[in-house]
Sequence to fold (827 residues):
Amino acid sequence: MTTAISVSGLRKSFGRARALDGLDLTVTTGEVHGFLGPNGAGKSTTIRVLLGLLRADGGTAELLGGDPWREATQLHRRLAYVPGDVTLWPSLTGGEVIDLLGRLRGGLNQGRRAELLERFELDPTKKGRTYSKGNRQKVALVAALASEAELLILDEPTSGLDPLMEEVFRECVAQERDAGRTVLLSSHILAEVEALCDRVSIIRNGQTVETGTLAELRHLTRTSITAELGAEPTGLAELPGVHDLDVQGTRVKLEVDTAELDAVLRRLTEFGVRGLTSQPPTLEELFLRHYTDEVRA
Amino acid sequence: MNTLVGTGFLTRLVLRRERVQLTAWLAVIALLAVGTAASFAQLYPTQQGRAEFAASLQGNPVFLALTGPMFDLTTLGGMTAWRVAGIGSLLAAFMAVFTVVRHTRADEENGRLELLGAGVVGRRAPLTAPLLTVFGAGLVLALVVGGALTAKGLPAAGSFALGLGFAGAAWVFGALAAVTAQLSQSARAATGIAAGVVVLTFLMRALGDSTGADWLSWISPIGWTQQVRAFADERWWVLALPLVTTSLLVALAYVLVARRDLGGGLLATRPGPARASASLRGSFGLAWRLHRASLLSWLISVVVLGLVLGALAESVSDVLRTSDQLQRILAALGGSKGVVDLFLAAMLSIVGLVGAVYAVQSTLRARGEESAQRAEPVLTASVGRTRWFGGHLVFAFGGTALLMAVVGAAMGLAHGLRAGDLGGELPRVLAGALVQIPAAWVLAGLAAALTGVLPRAVGLAWAVLVVFFLLGQLGQMLQLSQWLLDVSPFTHVPKLPGGEFTAQPLCWMVAVTVVLTAVGLIGFRRRDLG
Fold:
């Protein structure tokens, strides 16, 4: 098992503001690694250090076995990057940008390019200034996914995509994983990370606070459930893993540790389920619940 | 619905964002007027000294072209007005153009206006706020210049006439920028068109004043400041010209803004190719695509500029033949050939500054790309930093050289044909244009060094260019010390045609350019991007 990205004790300050404060990150070759954290946690800064755009103040960073600052040009042939906020040249069309970026990296899979344009429903003849945020993101995604790069670095790549396109994106990343490519996926959408990632690192205030497989982090997640039942329920509060229970007649709201979900659902169905919505908690909620005490302490 | 809702709030926002730049512009223009008046007072304290000064200049077409018509050079006020009316109006015009475009099309292009437009803001408010700011800045300028010159002991009427002349230029070109901001979808183009018109109107009055074609001066807003005749029996009614023009342009801008969507221009964007052509390959191919349109429009502009200046050069000596007194000046300047050469050299020195504007603008495009985060996708796609920056510099240096060669050839062609000696005159004029290249390159080198080392202060390159411009325009006449004049590379450019050619200063300038560019490239490799 080789390592695609290895970062330890990374530090970076902008003036007085400390963006990274001893961050660790290890991405194994061939895995999809989720890189989680709230806004301003230092995800993009870490990625920009890995891309050789920023110079670290301290710590070590290794990318595909090389130094991301000194060997930037050689390493970049082997990776493709999608920034969170894609800006395009106003006078170039999307198709031209895709071809240009592909040529700079040393080649584009033409069949894949055509297929991706179709799947993402992207019109390549429009000029950069006329694309919406989501469409600009698609341009960068097609350019990255159609490349032959062995490592994909995606920085909040779906923040402008509609749910349909988000689904297409998930399928594409799953394909890349099956094809053996390594993916670093920065996100604050936990569902996306859960669907795609083998392992996850969670950072906060420029430090790594959790890292491990999803199963290991499962204890962090709670699912919130709203149900409309046939009859007034009883005995829910006694079930293990149930929190914040709120019963209003036949209407039930509760949060449950994901590991205990099965038992709770069985219980609910006993009263006849008329309507059900379930929602994994947002990452921010998780952070609030999990770390507020730590910060206070 | 009230289309002006929120104007007050937006105007305060514009003022907040412009407080440093606008203050700096106003200070420079006011200091220009006051400093010139003070220098003249020191240099020519007596009536006799001023009469001699007037006699030495009166009717000299080179000074008529570079500076303006001479209404009364026997008073301090008259000398000051003659010296600064043109330059002051030029600076006021640029101040207005940059300010208006920055708060209209530039804000619209990068999406800031959308953020504001969704608030309680009327349709016309985002255009009105920067216009009010510029109109207010014009009034402040008039008051400051008028007040300061009066305080220096000059007649109040002339002082305020000159100040209001500056204000008029700011108003007209602010309103013009409001129109060009509606036409194009890019702020760069909006500024480019408006700034081009500013330069054009300056040249129109230069030609009108020096060749006797008065109508050219009278249709130029820069000329209006001079035609007010501050300190020389003021013609107040001339100030109605900028007022009327401003009103018409503002009305046109409002009509245009009502007819288009947010973010849109009047020209619809057409779809382009789905595939990149073979030439869009590598960072150099991309740089070519990005510089192409700008370089082509500059080339067309300087060809027109060169042809017009060249075609009119001969007329300069014709004007001097009209009276005995002027005949004597002609003889003193070395005959008809001598005066035409002086005129050509003077015009070429302005052309050199125009080249420097292109040099700075195209060099700073690299920083513009970086700030807009469009450098990132290229630099993370296996393009080295030196290669990327170098691609832009090739167009900055090569483009500047090309522009100078083309303008020199066009000017030499027109002048040679008119003078009936194409083979003789073309190479002389071309040489006069080519010697400007190293001086313009120094500015490109400075901009490159700033990009590499002080990326947040790249605007300094423009400030330095303005200082060099003012040194060239005012330095000798105000008898500034030589070491100060020597700071500007344009001081060292051989005055061709007619002057003596020396290669040494040109070699020095190239060496300075190489050092500055190397500093920029090395700095750019070592610093954080973004």
In short: Chain A has a mean pLDDT of 88. The first strand of chain A starts at residue 3 and ends at 14. Chain A is about 35% helix and 30% strand. Chain A has two domains: 3-218, 222-279.
